[in-house]
Known about the structure:
Blueprint: E1 3-5, E2 10-12, E3 15-22, H1 25-35, E4 52-55, H2 56-64, E5 68-69, H3 72-81
Parallel strand pairs: 1-5
Antiparallel strand pairs: 1-3, 2-3, 3-4
Amino acid sequence: xxxYVDHAELPFGRMLMNHLVADSTEELNAMADEIGVKRKxxxxxxxxxxxxxxxxxxxxxxxxxxAQPVDGRFIIGMARRSQPGQGAERRxxxxxxxxxxxR
Length: 103
């Protein structure tokens, strides 16, 4: 499973939110199921910007379940490199992942 999570920590109420993305909708939904995120919370479904906003607790769970930590530039790059017309089914991107330390 190739799933990525950033450490954006964007404020939402009393929580800090991060982005969970994947190379395919199937992988994204599988990870959401693994970490207990409801599929109805998907953002921008069917587009190259498809993702879940997840709190820090869910981010930790995603990392424990194999998500790769990346920075925001990687997330943005995924959306830009997606081919038009393919929706969330992304080509595998052979970029060096800018890893960031997990907190």
